[in-house]
Amino acid sequence: MPVNIPTILRSGVRLPVLGLGTWKSKPNEVATAVKVAIGAGYRHIDTAWNYGNEAEVGQGVRAAIRDGTVERRELFIVTKLWCTFHRPEDVKLGIADSLDKLGLDYVDMYLMHGPQGFKAMESLVDEGLTRSLGVSNFNSRQVDRVLQACRIKPVVNQVELHPYLPQLDLIKYCQSKDIILTAYSPFGSTPEVGNEPRLLEDPVVVAIGKRHGKTPAQVLLRYHLERGLSVLAKSITPARILQNLEVFDFRLTEDDIRSLNSLNRNHRYVTWQYSRTHKYYPFDDQPRSAQ
Ligand SMILES: NC(=O)c1ccc[n+]([C@@H]2O[C@H](COP(=O)([O-])OP(=O)(O)OC[C@H]3O[C@@H](n4cnc5c(N)ncnc54)[C@H](OP(=O)(O)O)[C@@H]3O)[C@@H](O)[C@H]2O)c1
To answer: Rounded to whole angstroms, what are the CA distances from 132 to 15, 93, 121, 122, 281?
Structure first.
């Protein structure tokens, strides 16, 4: 029996709290991963134009629809507008290319992958190309700017979140504005360099898992669910795709959450270093006027 994943209802949008991530999922692996995930109960699939795998993500999605595992309306497909499409006249080209690659008529949510202008995306909702809008990698000042100017409110801000980067202020801010935070890189992403801290091996995370009879990965997912957030878990490994679903049968205690928050070391696995000098680079504590 597929696991029934709870949803968060916000601004008329029903977002499944756990989604399958696909960043760095190779084109030759991701269609199978998506199909396995949908068969197991995942409904929320997160991809992006920039991941270079929308065509294969779409293959997995369409295969699951074709064989009767799900109907399109049961799925929540998210993709993202890449930063080279930010000019108002290019926004529609961005989504058209994504839809073409995915082989779908619409997506359920279209995110601006990194912070910049937003207004031009609203017409995509009017035209039925996406059902809702969201932002990603926006700091609270940048979300605020969008809220001042928008006609259609972003439902989600998708950002890096885990015990090494708990972002408690950003969570508080977004929740006060009724915006869902979606946590990405909950396991500490896919390590690229050997000297990055290994969240999945952190003794505190491991010990909490042992107490609950759960794996470190399951503790790290539950950490977000416990606080009313949604979370994306990337895996191309069928056993892990299934393991990451087994998070709705236990609860972390308040002490567990406190211990996990105390691991904070302001460590980002995803730094967008190449855009470090951009005026909208989101990860600096710069004065308001500079943002
Ligand atoms: N908006 C953005 O800018 C942004 C940025 C980063 C990520 N995201 C989204 O968020 C998703 C998740 O973040 P992420 O891909 O950075 O990293 P992540 O989900 O934190 O970690 C993925 C890594 O963890 C491994 N893994 C998965 N389940 C595991 C388990 N149960 N036990 C041990 N290892 C496990 C995966 O290996 P295998 O795949 O080999 O199993 C992979 O190496 C992305 O895929 C993407 O959809 C968005």
So the answer is: 11, 17, 10, 9, 24
Under 8 Å between Cβ of 118 and 149: yes
Give, for all 291 residues of the chain, the pLDDT tens digit: 899 999 999 999 999 999 999 999 999 999 999 999 999 999 999 999 999 999 999 999 999 999 999 999 999 999 999 988 988 899 999 999 999 999 999 999 999 999 855 568 999 999 999 999 999 999 999 999 999 999 999 999 999 999 999 999 999 999 999 999 999 999 999 877 678 899 999 999 999 999 999 999 999 999 999 999 999 999 999 999 999 999 999 999 999 999 999 999 999 999 888 788 888 889 875 333 333
How many domains would you assign to the chain? 1
CATH number at residue 117: 3.20.20.100
User: How far apart are alpha carbons 48 and 129 in whole angstroms?
Assistant: 15
What ligand 1 atom has the least distance to the C-alpha of 136?
1
Expressed as residue numbers, the domain containing 135 is 12-197+227-237+266-278
In the structure, which protein residues have their CB atom closer than 6 angstroms to any atom of ligand 1?
21-24, 46, 113, 136-137, 158, 184-190, 200, 215, 217, 232-237, 240, 243-244, 270
Q: Is the CB of residue 19 less than 8 Å from the CB of residue 221?
A: no
Give the pair of three-digit tokens for residue 155.
């439902």
Pocket test for ligand 1, best of 156, 234, 245, 274 (most atoms within 8 A of CB): 234
**Dist CA 271 CA 120 (whole Å):** 26
The answer as to whether 189 is a domain residue is yes
Beta-carbon neighbour count of residue 158 at 10 Å?
A: 27
DSSP string, 176-199: HTT-EEEEE-TT--S--STTS--G
Q: Provide φ and ψ at 136, rounded to 5°.
A: -145, 140
